[in-house]
């Protein structure tokens, strides 16, 4: 548990997790209530992050072929999510 903050930092840096804020009160002011705080992830570290997590390494040991496919699908989903968050953060609420 002592490395929780470091693990969270690695999750955000790799794109596994994204930091954002949502304040619905901003919409009444004509501002976007969704704010993305994460920087562009370092996608080349995504697979390394997965391999550093016990739940994923045990999957890889038990089912190596399926794990490779699932790891790739997980990265594809994380990229899709990040692009969705970029679109939401760019929405115009000034009307």
Note down, in words, how this protein is organized.
This protein is mainly alpha-helical. It has one domain (4-89). 59% of the residues lie in helices and 6% in strands. It is built from five helices and two strands; from the N terminus they run H-E-H-E-H-H-H. It has a two-stranded antiparallel ribbon with strand order 1-2. Helix 4 (54-62) runs antiparallel to helix 5 (64-89). The termini are far apart. The mean pLDDT is 94.
Radius of gyration: 17 Å
Q: Structural class given helices, strands, pairing? A: mainly alpha
Compute the number of strand runs: 2
Gap between N and C termini, in Å?
46 Å
Question: What is the strand and helix layout of this fold?
Answer:
Blueprint: H1 4-14, E1 20-22, H2 25-28, E2 34-36, H3 46-51, H4 54-62, H5 64-89
Antiparallel strand pairs: 1-2
Helix pairs in contact: 4-5
Give the tags.
single chain, 95 residues, mainly alpha, two-stranded antiparallel ribbon, 5 helices, 59% helix
Write a brief structural summary:
Helix content is 59%, strand content 6%. It has 95 residues and is mainly alpha-helical.
């Amino acid at each position: 548990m002592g490395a929780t903050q470091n693990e969270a930092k690695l999750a955000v840096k790799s794109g596994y997790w994204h930091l954002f804020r949502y304040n619905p009160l901003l919409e009444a002011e004509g501002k976007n209530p969704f704010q993305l705080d994460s920087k562009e992830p370092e996608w080349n570290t995504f697979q390394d992050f997965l391999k550093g997590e016990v739940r994923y390494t045990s999957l890889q040991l038990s089912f190596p072929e399926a794990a490779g496919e699932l790891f790739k699908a997980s990265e594809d989903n994380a990229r899709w999510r990040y692009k969705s968050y970029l679109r939401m953060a760019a929405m115009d609420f000034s009307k």
